[in-house]
Design brief:
Strand 1, helix 1 and strand 2 form a beta-alpha-beta unit. The chain is built from three helices and three strands, in the order E-H-E-H-E-H. The protein is an alpha/beta fold and 74 residues long. The protein has a three-stranded parallel β-sheet with strand order 2-1-3. The mean pLDDT is 86. The longest helix is centred in the middle third of the chain and has 8 residues.
Amino acid sequence: MAKFRVVTPAGISFGNPGTVGYEYEMEALAPLGAEIVEIAVKTEEEFAKAARDADAIYAKGRPITRTIIDALER
């Protein structure tokens, strides 16, 4: 299990169309023992619930609202 968990929405990419690569992110995160976990959710509430125990959120365009912040345990 990874030391740190970074949660991000599934299916959203800033790279080339049709690709979801985290090479650059993992270059920085791997030495920390981190993992990036994509979660496939539709609503803000679902995202908040799935991300509640994350060490970090990689939003990729999803607004980080009070609902999400209040749901975070860390």
